[in-house]
What we know:
Layout: H1 16-19, E1 28-30, H2 33-42, E2 45-51, H3 56-66, H4 69-78, E3 79-85, H5 90-104, E4 111-115, E5 121-125, H6 139-152, H7 154-171, H8 185-199, H9 216-228, H10 233-251, E6 265-266, E7 274-275, E8 278-279, H11 280-297, H12 300-316, E9 327-328, E10 331-332, E11 342-343, H13 351-357, H14 371-378, H15 409-415, H16 420-438, E12 446-447, E13 449-451, H17 452-469, H18 472-488, E14 490-491, E15 496-497, E16 500-503, E17 509-510, H19 520-537, H20 540-557, H21 590-605, H22 609-620, H23 622-627, H24 633-644, E18 647-652, H25 658-669, E19 675-680, H26 687-691, E20 706-711, E21 714-715, H27 722-729
Parallel strand pairs: 1-3, 2-3, 18-19
Antiparallel strand pairs: 2-4, 4-5, 6-7, 8-9, 9-12, 10-11, 13-16, 14-15, 16-17, 18-20, 20-21
Helix pairs in contact: 4-6, 8-24, 9-10, 9-11, 9-24, 11-12, 11-17, 12-17, 13-14, 15-16, 17-18, 17-19, 18-19, 19-20, 19-21, 20-21, 21-22, 21-24, 25-27
Amino acid sequence: PSLPRHTNRLVKEKSPYLLQHAHNPVDWYPWGQEAFDKAKQENKLIFLSVGYSTCHWCHVMEEESFKNKEIGEIMNKNYVCIKVDREERPDVDKVYMTFVQATSGGGGWPMSVWLTPDLKPFAGGTYFPPEDGVHRVGFRTVLLRIAEQWKENKDALLESSQKILEALLHVSEVCVQGQESPPPAKEVMATCFQQLSNSYDEDYGGFSKSPKFPTPVNLNFLFTYWALQRTTPEGTRALQMALHTLKMMAHGGIHDHVGQGFHRYSTDQHWHVPHFEKMLYDQGQLAATYSRAFQISGDEFFADVVQDILLYVSRDLSDQVGGFYSAEDADSYPTTASGEKREGAFCVWAAEEIRALLPDPVEGATEGTTLGDVFMHHYGVKETGNVNPMQDPHQELKGKNVLIVRYSPELTASRFGLEPGRLDALLREGRRRLAAARAQRPRPHLDTKMLAAWNGLMISGFAQAGVALGEQEYVSRAVRAAAFLRRHLFDPASGRLLRSCYRGKDDSVEQSTVPIQGFLEDYVFVIQALFDLYEASLEQGWLEWALQLQHMQDKLFWDPKGFAYFSSEADDPSLLLRLKNDQDGAEPAANSVTVTNLLRAACYSGHMEWVEKAGQILAAFSERLQKIPIALPEMARATAVFHHTLKQVVICGDPQGQDTKEMLRCVHSVFSPNKVLMLADGDSAGFLYRQLPFLASLERKDGKATAYLCSNFACSLPVTSPQELRGMLCP
């Protein structure tokens, strides 16, 4: 390839997203002091562009505007231009997204914001087309108009940016409003269930018509709601809503039937045509949610989906040193000869491609049936393509098919006169051949950045799957990833987590010159992962590290005045606001997950001020939890866990003993949202015995592995049979 014409400072960065912009004619700076100083010295406005590497419209705006030489010249002449990867700097993203949402009523990426030299926002939006159209102003016009305003009305702009900042500080504050107590759990749970039930799609599952998102937070809420109300009609409905949604998603096109894993979301009501990017945080949360569905229902269908997700992550998102990559893009080149990328090109099929790959006659089926006929029928493939043009505004999928399971195995088998038992093998062979053909296509871009928070979510996915499916190899994979975090995303000298690291040359792991410090979500998701990993592996080292990180989280992020944790640290002068996220969305809000973390931490340490902190967080979000808990389903779930008090399930026994293993298997096979498992192995010098003196008084009955159910460190009578234990866990 010829040498690039332009090179800017982003060439020194590690983020794959920033590197994608290193050869734009725009003189991009990364977020940092050098850019801020330049803006002040030259008295220039800042143009801030925030995106991420799998964002479709970010690519579009780059192609149209940031690669355009004239637009680049306007930007360089009038502004100091800063590019941010929102996955590296969620704190910067959140501050300015709060502004864009407050002033324009909507938000999204790419985010485009104009700032004064002291970083205060005064104008912003998302995607801008390059030139003026009938309905929208073009990017070029906006750039010139704002530059003109800065020349003519500088003082007015500065004054309005100050007012905007004061208003934002006011709207975004989450704190305790007079009352110090957590909201009533029963009402919060009932309201949240009602709100989910009202927005539930009876036919296809999910909680909106379209677009449809996987939202594991909703499903986990419903599982907990069911577990606490198993015998009521509402409880039964909650379980049915969750399981039906998970089934419909797994059958849909949002699930990659050939290459495994789940795409980001569906553009239609039927889970059919997705936006094709695949994110690590979705795989991690969905692996955990499908594991719970299997635990509760015993239906192998859900276990198969778990294995499918973890196969995808192990194969395509795993670094050989043990970490997990962030994401795979939606857009790719249809063939090696193509000049431009198309969305979904890697994943979609023309009918004739499938016919050519699956021409074999099927023995024992109706005369003349080929493997292609069976496969195309089952997966809804049509000769002219199965994508509704409404779902394809740019005609990128015209004539193509997104595979979706249209019939039950029984129906497809009977349609071709087959034994139902034979269908599974035929479909598997079809998927295998399509996968081999797909491997010849150019792959989508892989974002090889490794984030502590998302690695935490994925470790939880592997650990919970290992426990629910009884698969030791999944637990081992989680252990490798946790060891990776400890080695590459933790600074033992300061005791602090780092946000990100990167795949370097020759598959080494690299760090930026100035490493980004961990944010609240990094601590929270890693601590949750370490608790999950302890329960799966029973290695006490993970517990010890989790509790150390919890102390560090308290020190860096706790708000002693208004309660709850801030998303970012106090000592960054370039951040105008310290925010608290109040929405459980694609990922749960950190404060929501931390409530359960604190309760678990207290159970493992006897440190009761953590229970108090959990209550204070619920009090800080009390108003929202009572009015619109559907915005915080994970925190609503935690309200119930707080209210019902966690039960410590203590197994006294030899870790290697068969009787101990049977008791553990029993605990692992039961879904119980308010249990905490610990193994008392008799080693009185070990970490747990030092933390919890009461363990010393629990003994093995008649030398057998013995279980105790304890609440607030007071224990039930001992039981030695898995059946009795199961009865205690499922009252």
